[in-house]
Amino acid sequence: MPEWFTRFLNEIGIAAPERAGWLTVILTFLLAGVATWLFIPRVRAFAIKCGWADEPNSRRLNETPVPNVGGLAVYAGVIAALVVASLLRPIVIDEVKAEVLSILLGGSVLVITGFIDDQFGLPPFFRLVVQILAALLLVANGIRIEIAFGGAAGPVLSVLFTVFWVVAITNAINLLDGVDGLAGGVGFIIAISLLAVSAHFGERAAATLLLAALAGSTLGFLRHNFHPSRIILGDSGAYFVGYVLAASSILGNLRVSTIFGLVPPLLFLLLPLLDTFQVVVRRILRRMNPLTSPGRDHVHHQLLRRGFSQRRTTMVLWGVTLTINLVAMRVQGMSATVLVTTALGIIALLGLVVWQRGRALRVTEEIAPADRSSRGRST
Hints:
- The protein is mostly helical.
- It has one domain (17-358).
- 73% of the residues lie in helices and 2% in strands.
- The strands form 2 sheets. The protein has a two-stranded antiparallel sheet with strand order 1-2.
């Protein structure tokens, strides 16, 4: 391996380039992306056959029914990548298996809950209880925010902070999923940014592996979800993405000595959390139940009312998310090399997705007139 490349790998957090760990992370990312990209068309076709779709209404932006089971493909892509990676690099995976399985178990419960809610509807209180139980699963397996203040109440505060953290982020990502490509793209940016930080800490190896799988899977999904989308995440996917991000952000024994200790990890998720906060406040001020009163009061709705297209709205909020995450990475002590590499990587990969989606649309538009013309001649 060239010396300059070894130095570069060291600078971006790979302490031992000669070992297989970093290659496993890259392999997991690629496998998740390819698997999800290949799963989506089949999942979409089956969803259309079964009628699993979001119908147009006054609250939604879609004008035709859109399959709402993209989350199943994202989930399957993550699982497939981790299984294959564990077969190819079992020693690396064994070191973090317990933490990874704990998060995947909680995520699986939320995927099932979200899917049932999408297709049949579930009471908000029931969904909240399931989310709390999924958060408590993390606590039971040692994945928690350690509170170093509060004296004897510290352990109780630790549980409460962890549950609130997980439930808030899970719902924030779900509530952000209102414009084509937004939740998936924001999830991808946050996952890559957290991955760039976790790679510098050996105790966060489980987070690194999970974030690689999630980032690859959301990128593969975006190929089909950027406007005009062929499929959407649905509650199943948004819950899963939010839950994995929430759990990964506190992996590695996050210890908080003051309330301000939560600021660094909070910065990564600032956009979805702020959006959720302002929506809750607006609805409470209007004397509406924020859990059961849907509306068009999210930040993406405000941009659309200002004349932004769906594509432009999505890309603007991608840019805001990337900027905030770069600030968060700097607060975490990341070097300029890490920041630039992360930013360029995110921009290049999202740019590739947008270009591929645009090319696919152009091909479809060119084929459609030809098909109509041939049908006209045959009649």
